[in-house]
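As promised in the previous annual report, we have extended the structural survey to additional targets. Below is the entry for phosphoenolpyruvate--protein phosphotransferase.
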Amino acid sequence: MLTLHSPLSGWCAPLDETPDEVFAQRLLGDGVAIDPTGDTLHAPCDGEIVSVAASKHAVAVRADIGAEILLHVGIDTVALNGEGFEALVQPGERVRQGQPLLKFNLDVLARGAKSLITPMLITNGDRFSIADACVGLAVEVGDALFKVVSEAGDTASASTGGAGQEQALTFVVPLAHGIHARPAAVIANFAKAQATEISVLAHGRTANARSAVSLMALGLKHGDEMTLIANGAGARATLEHLKQLVLGITEAPHAADTPPGDGAKSARSPAAGYSGAQDPAQALGKRGQMGVQDPSQTRAAKEGFAGREANDSPPATSGRLRGVIASRGLAVGRAVTLKAAEIAVVEAGRGIGHESAEFERARDEVRARLNQLAQHSQGAAKDVITAHLEFIDDWELVASARRTISRGKSAAFAWRRAVRDSADTLRSLGDPRMAERVDDLIDLESQVLLALNGEAPTAIPALPERAILVAEDLKPSQLVSLDATKLAGICLAAGGPTSHVAILAAAMGVPALVALGPGALAVEDGAWLVLDAEQGNLSISPDQIALAAAEQTLAQRRQRQQTERAAAHVDCRTADGVRIEVFANLASIAEAQVAVAHGAEGCGLLRTEFLFLERDSAPSEEEQLQQYQGIAGALEGRPLVIRTLDIGGDKPIPYLPLPAEENPALGLRGVRTSLWRPDLLRVQLRAILRVHPVEQCRVLLPMITDPAEIRAVRRMLDEVRRELSINEPVQVGAMVETPSSAVIAARIVREVDFLSIGTNDLTQYTLAMDRGHAELAHRIDGLHPAVLNLIAMTVDAADEQDKLVAVCGGLASEPAAVPILIGLGVRELSVVPTLVPQLKSLIRTLTVEACRSLAQRALSLDTAEAVRALANETMTPARGLLPAQ
Ligand code: PEP
Ligand code: MG
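The corresponding structure token record, generated without further manual editing, is:
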């Protein structure tokens, strides 16, 4: 409970006596009104100045418990345009109770205003009510006027000691990408559920923890200090809880298996894109976490930006534009142009009550539509809608718009201003991850503005077959509402390759170019286009010969894919008859179905940590069993390699907060975490062994560094087998993903039934380059000769003991690497599910002999670039390693 003190000396009256229906009817909130005798307005409590009206006649203060107090000097004083007022504080300033806020000239006000009576009220009445108001009496500055009671029953006090004392908790942001949208949403959701107000202090600025937008605007990066502040009983525990939550926030998984050039922007069928089979890294726009970056893509991006300048003049109605590749592929079709009309907004409101009601109606309408859309969406589309749902109720955005409405502005003007102020702040951080959220904010801005105007949410025309959408920019909500079966491609004059639209387009399997420049806007409706999102070119109205050539390439590609799909279910052998098994890496039941449809022969790696990513409690044995059994069923008896939890490093999990570590990649990870929390390992092993039939499953242990770790897990496994009366032996494998396990592979392999090489981590640890490091992304290359030599040592050790060795890291999904791996002796690959057909068809063209000599040469080279150059040069149809196209 908070006591508000009189800001003025004078006569305190009930609000009903205010000669203005907005205040009298409590449309802005409940409180009291003071007819002043003094000329200085004082702070009624400790807090922060939220706003000072441009005409300086009103001030809003946010108390530490979160109550927002509006002090409005006089009635109709806005018309004085600041005459007679002097503001003594600024927005954002911290004030103490009794501190002077405004000075005003009583004579000027008495002459120019309808009344001097000054309402003091609580504007967030949904969360706070008032009690014990003292009215009908003379008051002095500082007299207690009424109490503010939190609707949630909070007993926090703004300024008294004891249980109400302010608590602060400072720690370092552990997340690799700082407090970006998802962590901000996690914090905001936690804060909204607390009775006590929580503030986050960083870089000398404060954000209300209930507002994801304000949290993002703090620009908190990895390693920055953040301080959580709260008041009241239980505040310490609440802050501790929030801190643990932040420490445990999971960064999105890396595009671990994603092969260069096809992963983050892989062309998937619309069905696959929306079926949740999409790489989680795509959904979150984590391009920087690609295991290996596609050099051609980087080049295209660079050239694209250079091209953008070239595209600036003059706009082209035919010819060619250069763009940045946002989703790879080739499309031929007709232009459907989308001219975005700016939504006109009138500044002046039609009464505070009317505008407030309209604002709530429009938000209700948009929220209801988003909720409906969310029910039918999955994957990246769902992520976009979730972001919009978060923002529509963002505490700070909504409060800011309401404040503007209370100053007499229209709801549309208020919402636009609130959104654009936040968007500007996010842009100014210079962080591309935050800038991506600007797309979402601007999208939501127009959704609410259209709802205020009573218009339909999108103005996208119905698409003809083979439509290539051409626009200045595209809003994510517009894209998800399009008929993906008719959309052949997307060309945007603006946009960026990591925007949500780019991510969605990739998930839908729609080729897209962005940053084409203003030339794209001159494209005429219905013009033929060739969109080459492999090279970064858009040909506008190409001549018949060029069009026919593009059609032919497209037809050949489709045919090749069809042929590959048709042969995908046949066992895969090299041209000289050596059997190579092609399995799939999985993280869900949906992916298992996609894998089987694409001819996968089993699952070579089930990343179990991704099955229960967003939870804040550990999954039970039954919950795990249900998932594993579902995947085993979807695989229809094919082998299922279940990896025990690989938590830690860049895969923290909310339900298992790990101690703060200087260098998490070198800390508690993989099997180390499981042995640190044997209770969790036991539950997981029990769930795995209960899958029916038990012989379908194999257990794979991540991050093994020595045989002792394997023996420790085996002991527990034997106990669990006894508990469950399982007599059959269970196959156990070790991942070789640390240099130590490769170097002593001969000793490791003695303890297990098979090995599986995790090239993503093996590359990271061998090259001492963080696999999530954006700057180093182009150098973290599994084709580095050091990595290849470790793979060769591992395969030789396994061969000597006649044990199987598979590769399940991203290298196995790379066409350039596959011949080398086969040449090194690898006979089982576990790959991205949708790539199984393409890789099988590649393998069928190879001879082991040619692969061996390629691999031997690769081992002796100096750099990854040299190995890539050799692979590219060798893998030509003329040299017999690749089929003629
Ligand atoms: C790897 O490191 O190559 C691997 C397959 O494991 P993850 O990518 O899940 O760390
Ligand atoms: Mg790994």
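Residues 352-375 form the longest helix (24 residues). The chain has 29 helices and 34 strands. These points will be discussed at the next consortium meeting with the crystallography subgroup.
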